[in-house]
Design brief:
- The complex is a heterodimer of chains A (about 120) and B (about 110).
- Chain A is mainly β.
- Chain A has strands at about 5, 10-15, 20-25, 30-35, 45-50, 55, 65-70, 75-80, 85-95, 105, 110-115.
- The radius of gyration of chain A is 13 Å and the shape is globular.
- With about 110 residues, chain B is mainly β.
- Chain B has strands at about 5, 10-15, 20-25, 30-35, 45-50, 55-60, 60-65, 70-75, 85-95, 95-100, 105-109.
- In chain B, strand 6 (about 55-60) and strand 7 form a beta hairpin.
- Chain B is globular and about 40 Å long.
- The chains are: A mainly beta (about 120), B mainly beta (about 110).
- The interface between A and B is medium-sized, with 26 and 24 residues.
């Protein structure tokens, strides 16, 4: 069965550079969540989208932006990267909107290392 | 701030012993989900609980959702080395999933 696809799997960037992470949800899923997981930490909610509109925002820095496109894939754009941005970034998708009683499926994550 | 608290943070057990992790929310949750994350891996969905007082079982795993829909527990009977990993609860409240801090389980053979 198709799962959530994230690309790239690994990314190394220098401080102050820009990075773009991509997420392709499970087919027909209309909701995407982004999470940031630091070493030894629990996943922290960044932002979510439902039907191409931002549905909620968490602890996402102003240097980050995201959007969901017409094909429901989502991109997380990160600018002026800092060392503290090094983390595992997960995308999850679900069906029916964030308020729906439906499970979220996670991608394998993108490991971002800022040097 | 953190809305979903999870305890314990770490648990070391001997293979064959039982294990329980607890999840508590400061607010009523629409539903709660449990995930398992192996070292270096991504969270994998285990189960979702929706109804007040709901109990679900998956082989050796038993999941409970409290009557007030503010707490939940995951109990593993007779742990095996394959149970090693971090178990997260994630509560749905106001359109966001709030993850608990996770319980890292280590099982000694």
């Amino acid at each position: 069965a198709a799962g959530v696809i994230q690309s790239p799997r690994h990314l190394i960037k220098e401080k102050r550079e820009t990075a773009t992470l991509k997420c392709y949800p499970i087919p027909r899923h209309d909701t995407v969540y982004w999470y940031q997981q630091g070493p030894g930490q629990d996943p922290q909610f960044l932002i979510s989208f439902y039907e191409k509109m931002q549905s909620d925002k968490g602890s996402i820095p102003d240097r980050f932006s995201a959007q969901q496109f017409s094909d429901y894939h989502s991109e997380l754009n990160m600018s002026s990267l800092e060392l503290g941005d090094s983390a595992l970034y997960f995308c999850a998708s679900s069906l029916g909107g964030p308020g729906a009683n439906t499970e979220a499926f996670f991608g394998q994550g993108t490991r971002l290392t800022v040097v | 701030g953190q809305q979903v608290m999870q305890i314990p943070q770490y648990q070391h057990v001997q293979e064959g012993e039982d294990f329980t992790t607890y999840c508590n929310s400061s607010t009523t949750l629409s539903n709660i989900q449990w995930y398992k994350q192996r070292p270096g891996g991504h969270p994998v969905f285990l189960i979702q609980l929706v109804k007040s007082g709901e109990v679900k079982k998956q082989k050796r795993l038993t999941f409970q959702f409290g009557e007030a829909k503010k707490n939940s527990s995951l109990h593993i009977t007779a742990t095996q080395t394959t149970d090693v990993g971090t178990y997260f609860c994630a509560g749905l409240n106001f359109n966001k999933f709030y993850f608990g801090s996770g319980t890292k389980l280590n099982v000694k053979p």
